[in-house]
Task: structure prediction
Amino acid sequence: MSFLVIFNSDCAPIDLDLVNRRNDWITAKNAQILGKERHAAFVASQSGSVLPREDATYCVAFDGCFWLIGRVRLDAREELASTISGSQVISQDQSDALICLRAYARWGDRCLEHLRGDFCFAVWDEHRQRLFCGRDQLGVRPLFYAKQGSRWLVSDTLQFIVAEAATDGDLDDYWVADFLTSGFCTDLDRTVYKQVKRLPPAHFLSVCARGYVVQKYWTLEIHDPIYYRRTTDYVEHFQRVIALAIRDRLPQDRVGISMSGGLDSSTLAAHALKATGDASKIVAHTRYFEHLIANEENHFSSLVARRLGVALTLRAVDDAVYDPHWYERELRTPEPNSIIVRAAPERIIVNEMAKQAQVWFFGEGPDNALVFEWQPYLRWLYKRADLFRLGDAVVKYIRSKQVWEWHSTISKYTARRHASERNLQLGLPPWLNEDLVKELHLIARAHQSVESAKKHLWHPRAVASFSDPLWPCFLEQFDPSVWGSPLVWRHPYLDLRVLTFLLSVPPIPWARNKRLIREAMRGVLPQEVLSRRKSPLCRSPHAMMLHKCGLPHLSLEGSILRYIDNTKVPTTLAHENLDHRSVMQVYVLASWLKSNRPWFPIKQVKS
Result:
């Protein structure tokens, strides 16, 4: 279930019959007209699946003056409810959406300073005659908006705005250029359509007759490291916050764990079991490769499942990483996205997962938060003249480093100069249209994007990674309103209590090989999993399948020529140093442009 908000800031009444003639899913039955001039409308669309109440669209009212429509799942809802009402107890039956609305009624714009969780919503404030919209801090849930004269449209689903706005289809050239270069847009407020905007994470939109404002309300700030006297305090702190994150995200029935056999997802499974106390309420799903690459995920995840006593489904996905017929299928994504090349087999997988559980946990987060940045940390301590902690950190670094790690460090230093030389040569794809590159100043824009990033003093890569525009793009792929997926994905490590703690522990020793989590799970997970080294895939399975199947038989003519020089696009993948993902992005864009029409969620397409 998704939502659409229509607001006429000039106070013109909304003609619901006219809206209905453009979109047959908008009827008086699922629309609510608001405002003294009947110039605002909340519309909730019905979907084929019933989502948990924290993930479904709610339309709630409070005090006869405030209305909210949106999808709201709150962390620490009891504490928030207590703060709102003082000593008054708020019923457990009240939805998170209603608690969110009551927070707005009390604090107005500043309500967002009190909210934590996954949310996107719009509030109609009858007192101020204005529309107020907010999106969560990391962008777990999307929110889009468009302005046509005095008419505003807001939705968590891009196609609802595109259909209702009757846009002329003009594309945002910067978005498209970024997609061809990186696979995603580096500007958080752009969509592929020039007339439709994204509300960036941690921002709000306020609209009234006098005008509008888009403003940031939160920034990830990590100050000095947390220093405890006892090492066990770090473990206890982690255990405490991850337990809270799990508790706030557990559904009433079974929960699924996307378990890779690695440390992070296995930790989620163990804590979910501890929270529920019932192994029958936990199911796990592991994807692995049988023949494309050497892969042991099935082995390690089986060890964890046996240790915890939870059900595990093992699935070989060699043939699911690339669908050789993707461009022939009647499948569509809201914006060009490389996920389309595996959308058909992915749909089969998620439909089967949905039979086991509707809510699933994903373990992304610690790989970014616990980056072992020992050099910036030591330099920071030295500049602060904190000689005691500097000496202690150096000793811990030397004592804990194993022989194979010393070899790896020396190899990195030897290769650093050559890597720097190579990076200077990296740039835009050679098949980008030269006129477009000049017109948009893409080279200068790329440099400006890199140089404008503010670096954290002692944890630069880790902290910067969570401001990367890749995160919202990544998280949107999990949202059911975007892809029509029957699954609801939740991300416990992105709970701000967990994330800020992981980013605040001293990198030496706790970020080294994610020692913090390994210590916390000692005696809980199998020793073989705890001692397993993090190792990237030796080769890309997607690239291997693409080399096997060859490039699509798509015509690179027509509107795509504004963006590419088709004479420079490779027709084969014979060159070993060729970036296959960058090449595929050309073909994904060509396919999307060819079928550029009002799209529908993947799950509604018949096989």
